[in-house]
Amino acid sequence: MVSVFDENDNRPTFHEKIYQVRLPERERRKKAEPIYRVVAYDQDDGPNSDLSYSIVDGNEDGKFFIDPKTAVVSSRKAFAAGSYDILTIKASDNGRPQKSSTARLHIEWIRRPTPSSVPLVFDEPFYNFTITENDKVAEIVGVVSLQKNPFPVWFDITGKVL
Question: Where are the membrane-spanning stretches (predicted)?
């Protein structure tokens, strides 16, 4: 029997080099809340493709932290409308020698709009999407659409594991 081991010849790759998000201002929280998730992938196999994430620049005041495995950037701090943050996120693989790459997360904090009294009209009365544990991260799993609305739409995505 011959075993072939993967050589760590690929560095992690982010889907984007610069992620730009606009988020509503928010007050200080007791519990950290997610801000954004940056995702990288590595074409190697095994441990060479296991990634860990860190914030390497733009977090000198410690407002943000990142989950090293899920790449979710979170914070408990307050963010005022008109402020702007730029973070450099690093993805490192577990290979030898270790390889890494970086992407930037630009966060623009905007004024939270007042709720509209105009009801949203969705194109479908109900949406249901299914994903499997093998689906790749950052793949589209469904599209929710609504009829034209003159106001910004703020939403949360929730779900349950069956």
Answer: none
pLDDT per residue as tens digits for the range 96-125:
889 899 999 999 999 987 777 878 888 888
- Percent of the chain at pLDDT above 70? 91
Among candidates 35, 40, 128, 27, which has minimal Cα distance to 79?
27
Q: Are 129 and 141 in contact (CB under 8 A)?
A: yes
Length of the chain: 162
d(CA 55, CA 47): 21
Closest among 49, 58, 46 to 19, alpha carbons compared = 58
For 50, residues 6+ apart whose C-beta sits below 8 A from its C-beta are 93, 94
Contact call for residues 34 and 118 (beta carbons, < 8 A): no
- Three-class HEC string of 9-65: CCCCEECCCEEEEEEECECCCCCCEEEEECCEECCCCHHHHCEEEEEEECCCCCCCE
Residue 15 CA to residue 139 CA, distance in Å, equals 11
pTM above 0.70, yes or no: yes
pLDDT at 72 over 70: yes
Q: Quick one: pLDDT at residue 64?
A: 96
List, in order of start, the domains of the chain with CATH numbers: 13-110 (2.60.40.60)
